[in-house]
């Protein structure tokens, strides 16, 4: 029987979030789970013990909504040990094709929503001098494909933020892990979790074709959400969890190729980098 940690999971009505919530409940953890639609969340999770599951309707664009849900979770369970920022969605299209509203909405959910959750949960974790924050980024945060510039920007932001956050809270006994998944067999490739620019510019035709191929790959991805859920639990139960984890062999390969190429570029341009030093001769 694992220790009865309390998990707070966003975006729990589908995908990796739902797989994680179900796995946690199967393993006797206590879970506060959020979704935009409470009934969808309850229906997706099914019948579970009421003393171990708290479904919450939350607007991730509202810090007040998040604060209220965190307060309810704490009052219900008496503690919050793990926070998982899973909620988010994909956005495809060239930068000049996407509207200001489409871009702003993606940042509000994919970035600011995670920030609000972190700000809301940290007082509880600092008081206990214990906790673990898991932020779900994407391999696109490091090695994106063409056509996903704004999505890559949001996920890069999550990676950079998580890296510094981990340093800031380490002395308080709080762990931070940013997880960058590759492709998983969830609804991510469907209209439920994906926005594609309505406005199309003919010069970006190859980009549009790449997005269509991505959508057509639904159900064929390598990743298994249930196996990902098991990894999340292992991370939290580990004595020394990683700060960054690439999830899936596809993510591992893309990250390795990207970092190898980046290191080569850095070394090739070393002399140019050094020329700007005040003491360069």
TrEMBL record:
Keywords, sorted A to Z: Oxidoreductase
Pfam families: adh_short
InterPro entries listed in its UniProt record: NAD(P)-bd_dom_sf, Sc_DH/Rdtase_CS, SDR_fam, SDR_oxidoreductase
Name recorded for this polypeptide: Short-chain dehydrogenase/reductase
Lineage: Bacteria, Bacillati, Bacillota, Bacilli, Bacillales
UniProt record similarity statement: Belongs to the short-chain dehydrogenases/reductases (SDR) family.
A GO term for molecular function: oxidoreductase activity
Organism: Paenibacillus albilobatus
């Amino acid at each position: 029987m694992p220790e009865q940690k309390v998990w707070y999971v966003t975006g729990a009505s589908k995908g990796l979030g739902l797989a994680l919530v179900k796995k946690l409940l199967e393993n006797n953890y206590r879970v506060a789970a959020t979704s935009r639609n409470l009934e969808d969340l309850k229906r997706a999770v099914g019948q579970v013990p009421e003393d171990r599951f708290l479904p919450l309707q939350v607007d991730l664009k509202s810090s007040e909504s998040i604060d209220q849900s965190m307060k309810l979770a704490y009052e219900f369970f008496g503690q919050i040990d793990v926070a998982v920022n899973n909620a988010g969605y994909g956005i495809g299209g060239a930068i000049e094709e996407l509207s200001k509203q489409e871009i702003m909405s993606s940042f509000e959910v994919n970035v600011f929503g995670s920030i609000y959750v972190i700000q809301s949960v940290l007082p509880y974790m600092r008081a206990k001098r214990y906790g673990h924050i898991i932020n779900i980024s994407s391999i696109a945060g490091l090695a994106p494909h063409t056509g996903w510039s704004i999505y890559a920007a949001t996920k890069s932001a999550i990676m950079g933020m998580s890296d510094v956050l981990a340093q800031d809270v380490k002395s308080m006994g709080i762990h931070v892990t940013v997880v960058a998944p590759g492709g998983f067999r969830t609804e991510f490739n469907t209209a439920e979790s994906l926005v594609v620019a309505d406005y199309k510019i003919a010069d970006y035709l190859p980009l549009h074709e790449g997005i269509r191929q991505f959508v057509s790959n639904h159900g064929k991805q390598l990743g298994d959400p249930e196996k990902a859920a098991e990894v999340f639990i292992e991370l939290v139960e580990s004595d020394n969890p990683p700060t960054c984890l690439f999830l899936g062999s596809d993510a591992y390969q893309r990250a390795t190729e990207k970092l190898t190429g980046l290191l080569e570029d850095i070394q090739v341009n070393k002399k140019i980098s050094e020329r700007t030093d005040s003491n360069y001769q």
